[in-house]
Amino acid sequence: MPVAAERQLRAWIETAATRHRDKPFVESIEQGAAMTYGALRDTANRIGQALAARGIGPNDRVALLSNNSIEHLATYVGVMAAGITCCTIHVEMNAIYFEEILAAVGAKLILFEDGIDAESLRPKVPGEWVPLGTWSADRPGTGWYAELACYPADRVVPIAAGPRDAASIVYTSGTSSKPKGVVLTFAELAPNIEPTADRFGIRATDRFLDYRSYNWVSAQWLSCLGVLSQGATLVMGRRFSQSRLFDWIRTCKATIAAGNPTIINMMINRPVDIHGRDLPHLRYITSSSAPLMIPEWKRFEEMYGITVVQGMGMSEIGWICGADETTRRFGTVGRPLVYLDLSVVDAEGRRLPPGEIGAIELGGDPAVEYRYLADDGSIRVNTKGRMRTGDLGMLDADGYLVITGREKDLIIRGGVNISPVEVDNVLLQMPEVAEAATVGIADAIYGEEVVAFVAAKPGVALDEHAVLAFCAARLPAVRCPKRIYFKDALPKTDRGKMDRNRLRASLDNA
Predict the structure, then answer these.
(1) Cα 330 from Cα 203, distance rounded (Å)
(2) Burial level of 156, CB count in 10 A (0-12/13-18/19+)?
(3) What is the mean pLDDT of residues 308-323?
(4) Is 442 helix (H, G, I), strand (E, B) or coil?
(5) pLDDT tens-digit profile of 231-248?
(6) Would you place residue 176 in the very low, low, confident or very high pLDDT band (cuts 50, 70, 90)?
(7) Is the torsion defined by CA of 498, 439, 313, 370 positive or negative?
(8) Which among 292, 282, 315, 68 is positioned nearest to 181, based on CA atoms?
(9) Residue 461 is assigned to a structural domain of this protein
(10) Please, are residues 38 and 61 in contact by the beta-carbon 8 Å criterion?
């Protein structure tokens, strides 16, 4: 019998703890500690009791102000396993918005790690403020974890939530605009996890290394809940370190490691003396958050002998596409998860056949609402049923999805649609080019004109004429950049995506 969505997390915890109580669920590299599946079950049971003692029930909110740690991860899982809404807020990215975010969230309980200025926020933000503290397998904990130790580990509080109740609220980064709170129900969360784990080929024997923030859906749902659903092990770093990444993979015997285009480009342009044969346990490195250009993808694999697997997701949906080392395909983000019913549509919303570029749309249940948290704490429906991701792309003959750009980045020159990603891919084929980004700028005759920004590899000199000639030999004239602007490095968003808005603005301010 299928498990109800609101009970799925508890079922995964119970299954894993029953099968292998002493197997690590998470190992924290910096903390030098691990929490087993048995300890996770005990912690989740205690969290359920601590919340019930406070009268916290379905759709009441628990705010978590912390970075990557065992305590953060166990609380995130345990709160939702109790059927309560967990709101994770990125400490570094959202710090200037704490007061506004917490006012909107209206959390009954706010758990915060050391370094958070709770004393200045507490008078302005209602709710119970409790230090997150520390957990230990063999000595008394502190803060929240000292309180949890007072509850019996084997008492299970019944779940009162239903599938349409909120499981989590995730805030976007807010680096260029005010952060947005995405509200996700148990019915949206639970069905995404096992299909995602299956698409990425995660098995119980895997050790998944991830150092991305567990305040974002991509890490939460793939390497935390995806690992949990399979009874695998998460090896967690507090944040990315280029100098330590391969040592982590080797010493922790990671079989899968997280990545993104920024990290892969960093490894290409700042080479490390290592090869895949030196990492015998590693199956592949992931790439997500932004499209990985084909030249960069191939260059990394040729340099390091390490397989890259690309996937795609979004905060409002979770993971959308993925692959593993046996099913990945260059230039694609893998195959869509079947239950999402992804399609590529034209301007009128009609499904397009394979090979034709259009807007990416998904969602099958007409009752599903995609929701955001308003400033006053109410939940606002953004769209219902099917929704657009904001991406442009096409499906190939085998159902693999190719991302060709963002709808907002599409360049329309004299009525011709031009994908900046197509031009980026050509520029990156030039051996001297480290980074490239194409944008459209206003033009009195054509409406928009194509220009590109390029960063050369260290110690390499490039001139505009050579780059333009390279493009002219590989692109139709209408798609060729008319100007090349050189920078030492191109700006990225916090998620590793090329920041084309800042590049356009740099021309406006020149």
Answers:
(1) 23
(2) middle
(3) 94
(4) strand
(5) 999 999 999 998 999 999
(6) very low
(7) positive
(8) 315
(9) yes
(10) no
Partners of 412 in the β-ladder: 417
CA distances in angstroms from 204 to 7, 25, 310, 377, listed in the order given: 21, 11, 21, 39
CATH number of the CATH domain containing 425: 3.30.300.30
- Domain with 472, as residue range(s), is 410-508
**475 assigned to some structural domain:** yes
First to last CA, the chain: 64
Percent of the chain past pLDDT 70, that is, above it, reads 97
User: Quick one: how far is CA 384 from the chain centroid?
Assistant: 23
Element (H, E) at 231: none
Going by C-alpha positions, the residue among 29, 1, 41, 33 that lies closest to residue 228 is 41
Residue 417 has pLDDT above 90, yes or no: no
Q: How far apart are CA 67 and CA 237, in angstroms?
A: 10
Residue indicated by tokens 């809940």? 225
How many domains is the chain built from? 1
In a domain, 50, yes or no: no
Task: Quote helix, strand, coil % in the chain, to nearest 5.
Answer: 30, 25, 45
Report DSSP letters for 99-116, one per residue: HHHHHHH--SEEEE-TT-
pLDDT above 80: residue 496: no
Q: Nearest 5°: phi and psi at 92?
A: -80, -45
Q: Is 275 domain-assigned?
A: no
In what helix (H) or strand (E) does residue 211 lie, and over which residues does it extend? none
Tell me which residue has tokens 């044969």: 277
Determine the distance from the C-alpha atom of residue 179 to the mean position of all C-alpha atoms in its chain, rounded to a whole number.
15
**Mean pLDDT value of segment 272-278:** 94
Q: Which residue, among 20, 371, 287, 318, has the nearest Cα to 195 in the 3D structure?
A: 318
Q: What single-letter DSSP state applies at residue 252?
A: T
- Cβ–Cβ contacts within 10 Å for residue 204, how many? 13
Encoded tokens for 217: 């859906």
Question: What is the pTM for the complete model shown?
Answer: 0.86
Backbone angles phi, psi at 93, to 5 degrees: -75, -30
- Looking at the predicted structure, is the pLDDT value of residue 510 above 60? no
Residue 357 to residues 401, 407, 428, Cα–Cα distance (Å): 10, 11, 22
Please give the angle made by the CA atoms of 433, 438 and 441, to the nearest 5 degrees.
Answer: 140
> What is the pLDDT at residue 412?
85
Burial (CB < 10 A; 0-12, 13-18, 19+), residue 488, is exposed
Given a cut of 60, is residue 434 above it in pLDDT? yes
CB atoms within 10 A of CB 381: 10
Assigned token pair, 310:
């690309």
The residue type at 59 = N
β 358-362/387-395 pair status: antiparallel
Averaged pLDDT, 74-103: 91
Which burial class, exposed, middle or buried, applies to 327 when counting CB atoms under 10 A from its CB (0-12, 13-18, 19+)? middle
